[in-house]
């Protein structure tokens, strides 16, 4: 494993390999769980990379799968050891969406549909502070400050000089009209969107009100894609108490088709910029 691969991706790749070994053995997750006297949900979490994998877990699973090549076992054990290292975001304590941050950190491209607010990677500090405080009214000031700092740190992916994240954002027009913080905050935020949209790897389109019902009517979602062919694409849907990660090809394909419909229904890039620019000027009045 390359040394610069983050722990979330390490767990995910290790989980995929363990699933492959199980399927080669012709066993179900339930059968493996019975052999190891653990819950089926633990086997599922190990395979989908949502749970930290210990070297003991790997050793036990390789025993059940009768892996005879010690080099394979040693390689998987090393992957398990590496997967327990911490990413930069762990320095901020318990972040509820840390799995997503790990995936975003390693992604090659990200497609986002956001119906309510300006998406996190495009937010200014003032806008992010208002969003975090408004969305978490019962959280402490310290916790909210931590979430804002993590959000701003994530933005380094799109400002990096080498291998920046390829970002495509479809914003519902409602996100441009919802006054977050103040009109001054909104003016600065929309100007910031205009500035970032000039980057060659950032595309912003606006889905206008006049479209009516559309392919994203059920809410926000993101599609992450990775450079390594071994890493399958992931659809991420953020929740209040838990998040949803979809990796089955059928699910990813469905959301990808939905996104293409959203792009087609949206204003083109130049039309979107003109609308954002017009609204930014209105907020300045």
What secondary-structure arrangement, pairings included, does this model have?
Elements (H helix, E strand, L loop, with lengths): L6 H19 L3 H8 L3 H9 L6 H10 L5 H14 L14 H9 L2 E6 L10 H11 L5 H14 L1 H4 L6 E7 H5 L5 H14 L5 E6 L13 E5 L8 E4 L6 E3 L2 H17 L3 H15 L2
Parallel strand pairs: 1-2, 2-3
Antiparallel strand pairs: 1-4, 4-5, 5-6
Helix pairs in contact: 1-3, 1-5, 2-3, 4-5, 7-8, 11-13
Tags for this model:
285 residues; alpha/beta; six-stranded mixed sheet; elongated
What do these coordinates show?
This protein has 285 residues and is α/β, with parallel strands linked by helices. Helices cover 52% and strands 11% of the residues. The protein has 13 helices and six strands. Strands 3-2-1-4-5-6 form a six-stranded mixed beta sheet, sandwiched between helices. A hairpin with a 6-residue loop joins strand 5 and strand 6. It starts with 6 loop residues before the first helix and ends with a helix.
Provide a brief overview of the structure.
52% of the residues lie in helices and 11% in strands. It is an alpha/beta fold and 285 residues long. It is elongated.
Q: Looking across the biggest beta sheet, what order are the strands in? A: 3-2-1-4-5-6
Which parts are unreliable, with pLDDT below 50 for 5 consecutive residues or more? none
Annotation field: number of helices: 13
Q: How can the largest sheet be summarized?
A: 6 strands, mixed
Q: Would you report the number of β strands?
A: 6
Average of the residue pLDDT scores: 88
Proportion of beta-strand residues: 5-15%
Structural class comes to alpha/beta
Rounded to the nearest angstrom, the radius of gyration is: 21 Å
The amount of helix comes to 40-55%
Order of helices and strands: HHHHHHEHHHEHHEEEEHH
The global form is elongated
Straight-line N-to-C gap: 55 Å
Protein name: XRE family transcriptional regulator
Organism: Streptomyces griseorubens
InterPro entries: Cro/C1-type_HTH, DUF5753, Lambda_DNA-bd_dom_sf
Domain HTH cro/C1-type: 18-72
